[in-house]
């Protein structure tokens, strides 16, 4: 005997009206309206009896709202500042991790021939060396009445360097008389922190002894060539080394 199939109710059939649920909803709505009405009457009565209190409450609420907005603004600004600092820290870390390539000094000219220069050109070449190696306020002041100063400059560490340039031949060495004339003006007149006498020749023994006593740096031909091609120290570095050794 075949079992009769159970009839499935249609899916779009409307839900039957529920009187109980509807009544509960309206009761709840009436309660809410009553509470809100009671609260409104209470507030109105308080305003009539104590208008100052009501005004104070309103001001307090407004102040609280403005303070909340200010705190939110400060919080947003703090987040932006923190993000900027974090980005700067990452960039600094990247810079520290990057390999440091040492800066190479270059010669004033590839095949400079100091012997072929005039005394004025030699002074200009020495000034160019100072400028190349980081000196500022480099000036050629040699000439009549220079009182021993041919080139003046300020070293990278802030010292005033005064240089006298002697373009001599190999047979003409710088003597003690040259050092004494320069030593009499380089510190007292030109207010040098570092006094240098540079020559294309060499120095006599008395000249070197006098320079050591006065604190004058002597740059002979070999030292000049090493300074020029970047393999030797700068004259103001020689002054620092001598002071440290003493």
Write a compact overview of the structure shown.
Pfam families: Mrr_cat. The protein is α/β, with parallel strands linked by helices and 246 residues long.
Write structural notes for this entry.
This protein has helices at 19-49, 51-97, 119-132, 176-183, 205-214, 221-229, 235-245, and strands at residues 136-140, 151-154, 160-166, 194-199, 216-219. It is of the alpha/beta class and 246 residues long. The protein folds into two domains: 22-97, no CATH class; 114-245, Trna Endonuclease, Chain: A, domain 1. A five-stranded mixed beta sheet has the order 1-2-3-4-5, with helices on both faces. Strand 3, helix 4 (176-183) and strand 4 form a beta-alpha-beta unit. Helix 1 (19-49) packs across helix 2 (51-97) and helix 4 packs parallel to helix 5. The longest helix has 47 residues, at 51-97. One of its GO terms (molecular function) is endonuclease activity. Keywords: Endonuclease, Hydrolase, Membrane, Nuclease, Transmembrane, Transmembrane helix. InterPro entries: Restrct_endonuc-II-like, Restrct_endonuc_IV_Mrr, tRNA_endonuc-like_dom_sf, Type_IV_Methyl-Rstrct_Enzyme. Pfam families: Mrr_cat.
